[in-house]
Amino acid sequence: MITCKSDKELAYMRDAGKVVARTLVELKNAVKVNVPTCELDQLAEDFIIKSGARPAFKGLYGFPYSICASVNEEVVHGFPSLRKLKNGDIISIDIGAEVNGYFGDSAITVPVGDVSSEAMQLIRATEESLYKGIDRAKEGARLSDISNAVQTCAEGYGYSVVRDYVGHGIGSSPHEDPQVPNFGKPGRGPRLKAGMTLAIEPMINMGTHEVRTLFNNWTVVTLDEKLSAHFEHTIAITDDKPEILTKVGSR
User: Count of domains in the chain?
Assistant: First the structure.
């Protein structure tokens, strides 16, 4: 069931979203050559807790960390570890925070040191596809209008869109109805209404859209081992333009 949030619920989600946004700023600044990804995880956990929130991912479905740290061909759900970032890597960082029983969820992909022009284009195109999707998240539109905008943008660059993992509703649970695919024809699915809250998250691959899961039963990688990028925002549908709840400076 898709729920529309009250003003009070949206206020709690704004608080959670601000924590997520500020944490990602801290993490982006901390991404450097030779930094182990477990250090980023500890930084995120400490910052979220000091901000009066709870790391939403830690313990969720058994996930053992506060962030997902996915490097290069890792699409999502990468485990933080002693692995040190190398010059030319890209790292996707996905985090969530809970405030007063409500959640915010966001992801960014960050270049490490000097990366190739091909990697930078993938990062830029993935972020662009996120905002193309957000632009279509307006009251009265159909859910698949978001999906189609993401797909059209990403495939316009010659990239592929992951099919096996999608965005989602969010609110008093980190994952709610509806699912928000990053592909599909426009004009389909539920009609968007003010108060709906969604996590839109393109996962875009340089090569094939096909993926597989590693032995830890969590980390998802591209089947052809080519690069993948991931961006995400939690948004609220309003009677005007969509409100991004996980952006620094959002109201």
Answer: 1
Predicted TM-score of the model (pTM): 0.96
With respect to residue 250, please indicate whether it lies within any of the assigned structural domains: no
Residue 185 in domain: yes
202-251 pLDDT, tens per residue? Answer: 999 999 999 999 999 999 999 999 999 999 999 999 999 999 999 976 44
Residue 1 lies in a domain: no
Extract the runs of DSSP E, i.e. beta strands, from the chain.
Answer: 54-55, 67-71, 74-76, 90-99, 102-111, 160-161, 167-169, 176-180, 197-200, 203-205, 211-213, 220-222, 228-230, 233-236, 243-244
DSSP of 81-132: -SPBP-TT-EEEEEEEEEETTEEEEEEEEEE-SS--HHHHHHHHHHHHHHHH
Evaluate whether residue 78 is within a structural domain.
Answer: yes
Positions in the chain whose pLDDT score sits under 70: 249-251
Q: What is the CATH number of the domain that holds 92?
A: 3.90.230.10
Contact 76, 203 (CB under 8 A): yes
Please give the C-alpha separations between residue 102 and each of 17, 63, 248, in angstroms, as whole numbers.
Answer: 9, 19, 18
